[in-house]
Amino acid sequence: MSSKINIYLVEYAINSLLRQKHKTFFITIILTILIFLLSSVFLITNSIKHELNATLKSLPEIIVQKSKAGRHYDIDIDMADNLLNITGVKSAIPRVWGYYYFYNSKTNFSIVGIDEYEEQYKDTLEKIATTLDFSKDSMLIGKGVNRIMSKNYYKEYFNFIKPDGSIKKMEISGVFSADTELESNDMIVMSINNAREIFDMPSAHATDIVVKIPNVDEIATIAQKIKQQYPDTKVITKDDLKISYQNIFNYKSGLFLALFIISLFTFFIIIYDKLSGLSSEEKREVGVLKAIGWRVEDVLKAKFYEGFIVSFFAYLLGLLLSFAFVYIFQAPLLKNIFIGYSELKPSFELPFVFDIQTLALIFFLSVPIYIAATIIPSWRSATLEADEVIR
Amino acid sequence: MLLTPEVLTLSILNVLFVIFATIAFVLSVKIYLNWDMNSTNQKQYQLEKYSFLNAIVIKYIFFIKIPLFLFFIFTLDKISNILTGAMCSAGVIDATEYGTYLIVLKILNLYLFAYWLKLHQQDKKDEKQLYTKLKFGIYIALYLFFMVEIALEGIMFYSIDINKLVSCCSSIYSSSSTSAISTIFSLNTKILLSIFYGNFFLIIIFYFFKNRYLFALSNIIFIVTALITLIAFFGTYIYELPSHHCPLCFLKSEYNYIGYLIYLLLFIGTFYGLSVALLKKSRKNYKISLIFNSLYVILLSLIIIVYYIKNGVLL
Amino acid sequence: MIELKNITKKYEINKNNTITALKNINIKIGEGELVIIKGSSGSGKSTLLSLIAALSKPTSGEVIVDSKRISKLPDNFASDFRQNNIGFIFQKYNLINSLSVRDNIILPLIPMNLNIDVLNTKLQNVIKMFHIEHKENVLVKNLSGGEQQRVAIARANINSPKIILADEPTANLDEKLSLAFIEILKELKFQGKTIIIATHDPLFFNFNIVDKEIKIYQGSIS
Question: What pLDDT score does B20 carry?
């Protein structure tokens, strides 16, 4: 580890690795698999987080829900006008939305009702509102919904079963795509009155009210004011949502990391074991090297190069494989574990996210740990009594 | 408690450090007590072998610790996204009572480890290995410092409460806060700057006099004056905001990671300055120290000048 | 000049058991001499070689080479001493079979991190001296016994050491190769190198090259 890299020593280390083909191959493969698994998990969570953040960005600053006996309840749309009187509030829009459980495929669709004349609370909806025909019983559906409906032979229309058991027939007028696939995949957009009909909601009611506040610094104060004025409401700010989402994902990948640690320590022991069992061939070689003038430090350095080459190669290979696995093949199997929060298992595309910090994290979990496992075995062989070879 | 993947990673490596540092500690005690260069018995030969293991373990820890320190700062930055109120790592450090001590200790330990390696190098150069006993004695002390650091880190991550509101860096480093740091702002900027540049001038003078103790002493003081002026004065020019005094925000990508360069220059410059007194003085150490300290002063002065040229006024 | 003063070497097998490999050895070897150390296997002649090479340290006594006390050197200085002064020839050559002739010969130079031109000059010198230039890039395992022997000798000489140590160099050789080895020894002696050979092969005495003969029996000079 001195200042200058000795290229001959590197060459020697590579040759020595090639000489022990089987051992090198075995260790590299296992290390690569571990790194591959770990980095795949991180790449997937990063992509999902990225999607979520993009979704969150388009969310309103505050959502006001009515809460009764601890449960969410429909809210009076009159409250929206009252909220507008609070200084700093730019707009307060009642929303009608909810989940519709489609029994045949055992999935939930989220239905979003929009008002033709009112300002939309999201840019995506603004675009959709211009294409939706409000005069008819028609709706626009997301990609995932479209796939499921056509699988069940609903290609032109869909029959919703209302709470009273009667049927509401809605025409499918088109499929839309939004900025982020997570939000749009399971979404159905229709006119606000149709949505109320399907949910059997009175016309003066809404699911919740979204409040827009241009000045970020005022969000906390306004949220507090609303809470004071309407004690029966639950006030959710954007930050609350963001933090709870982030915690969910950190928790999940944390769990994976815990599993990874266990396998890593097992690996650590295997490596330690493999390297400690010095063959007589290796002993002889170290003895010869010392007899012809190598220092203990030179032997250690050669062993360090060997360890670094193997682990860094496995690191790069594992990363490369997982990049291909996640972004080219869309992480079959693994992805489902992480997107379980949505009932509708959407096959959304994982967006490409490049994050140096994650690469650093994976690096710290692989290369230094491998090298640590080699320290004591290397020291053992480097300090062998060299005079044994000439005895 | 906080259990992000980053914190877990840091913890795993800390566990590894504890194991290895403890092995080296036990062997160091043995070497310290029994080392005898003149002895020819098996025991002494075994101790010589142990000294190789110790050296490699300490080297390993140091060379992982440097990038890991950056990763630690990165991690705090990332945690600041989760903590309500925190804008950068400063808020996370301030979130618990341990944060500040931890950072100070971490930096101190980097200096100590680097010093140990210098001593080791010196030791290896001499046939009589005069410093062997000393260096392992120093490691025994260093080990205790290091363990306190790791314990503090664990406690800090354990006691961070996600639901608690923490202060943002601009409030920690503001003149209205009551912390010790805020007393800096009650000092006159002109006086501070004169001390800073005066201090640097002294380093140059002692460089020409080649007085190792005065040179090292002026370097120690330089660490303090450099940090104070960085917070009170130079930092505000990096942010181009007269009220923002955070010494950590400029580590972020928004400021092109300039903070890493600033701290690196200061670390290398003052470390070599100190090593002049603590180790054999060498012309090279004097020179490296002066070059890096000068680069530090030039870089910060340039930031002010560039700002003045661009805006025509000073903050 | 090499001088061994009152050398005793003990090996600890366990706490209560020590083996005395060498007892009160005093030897002086002048520059340019060719010395044979004779003795049956286990008599301590290999231990003697390893002490001269600073590969191991005596339990008591001193080894002095060119007025330098090498018996007390820390490992890295001992290694530097070996690197610059000692050329080792082992009983079974101890070459790395899967490396080429070139890579085997430059092994002693690797830690020095030399400039490639300097390294190549040194390499060319020895491979010409020992007539293996046509095999430079051949793997050692594909060489004949005689060629392997010359590679081993070339490796010992690449850093132009003053002292050559050989441990039972002819034990595994047929007569023809042994004779060839002795020819090479003559050449090395002619170059002024000090040569110390641990052997019990009587062949060496048929030629008039041995300056001194040291007989070791159960760890003492007899």
Answer: 96
Interface of B with A (CB under 8 A): 3-6, 8-9, 12-13, 16, 20, 49, 52-53, 56-57, 59-60, 63-64, 67-68, 71, 74, 78, 81-82, 84, 162
- pLDDT for A343 equals 40
Chain B CA closest to residue A245: B82
CA distance A240 to chain B (A): 9
In angstroms, what CA-CA distances link A16 with A268, B93, B274, C202?
Answer: 21, 47, 42, 39
pLDDT tier at B244, thresholds 50, 70, 90: confident
CA nearest to A279, candidates A25, A27, A14, A19: A19
- What is the distance between the alpha carbons of residues C151 and C135, in angstroms, rounded to a whole number? 10
Per-position b or e across C2-31, b if 16+ CB within 10 A of its CB: bbbbebbbbeeeeeeeeeebbeebebebee
Average pLDDT across chain B, whole number: 86
Distance from the Cα of B5 to chain A's closest Cα (Å) equals 5
Q: Cβ contact (<8 Å) for C57 and B127?
A: no
Q: Which residue is associated with the tokens 């080219």?
A: A328
CB atoms within 10 A of CB A340: 9
How confident is the model over A7-21, as pLDDT tens digits?
999 999 999 999 888
The rounded distance, in Å, linking the Cα atoms of B230 and B224 is 10
pLDDT surpasses 70 at C61 = yes
The listed range with the strongest mean pLDDT (A104-113, B226-235, B279-288, C105-114) is C105-114
Kindly identify which residue of chain A lies nearest to residue C87, measuring between CA atoms. Answer: A292
**Residues C34 and C60 sit within 8 Å (Cβ to Cβ):** no
* Cross-strand partners of C165: C88, C196
Q: Which residues contact A318 (CB under 8 A, 6 or more apart)?
A: A31, A32, A33, A34, A35, A36, A38, A39, A362, A366
Could you tell me if C75 and B48 are in contact, meaning their C-beta atoms sit under 8 angstroms apart?
Answer: yes
Count other C-beta atoms under 10 Å from residue A220's C-beta. 15
Yes or no, beta carbons of B127 and C58 under 8 Å apart? no
Residue B136 confidence (pLDDT) above 90: yes
ipTM attached to this prediction = 0.91
Distance CA C56, CA C58 (A): 7
Q: Kindly list the residues from chain A whose CB atom is less than 8 angstroms away from the CB atom of residue B3.
A: 250-251, 254
Domains of chain C and any CATH numbers: 32-60+67-221 (3.40.50.300)
Average pLDDT on A235-244 reads 80
Inter-chain CB proximity B68 and A239 less than 8 Å: no
* Chain A positions in Cβ-Cβ contact with residue B5 (cut-off 8 Å): 42, 250, 253-254, 257, 361
Task: Please answer yes or no on whether C75 and B48 come within 8 Å at the CB atom.
Answer: yes
pLDDT at C19: 86
How many CB atoms are closer than 10 A to CB B2? 21
DSSP state of A327: I
Residues contacting B296, CB < 8 A, separation 6+ = B226, B262, B265, B266, B269
- Within chain C, residue ranges assigned H as helices are 45-52, 75-85, 101-105, 116-129, 145-157, 175-190
Nearest alpha carbon to residue B110 among B260, B268, B291? B268
Per-residue pLDDT for A338 more than 70?
no
* DSSP one-letter string for C100-125: BHHHHHTGGGGGG---HHHHHHHHHH
* Beta-carbon count within 10 A of B278 CB: 12
Residues from chain B contacting residue C74 (CB–CB below 8 Å): 48, 127, 129
Taking the CA of residue C133 and the nearest CA in chain A, the distance in Å comes to 21
Of B12, B16, B82, the CB nearest to A243: B82
Taking alpha carbons only, the member of C94, C192, C128 closest to residue A292 is C94
β-pair type (C34-38, C212-217):
parallel
Say what the pLDDT of residue C160 is: 92
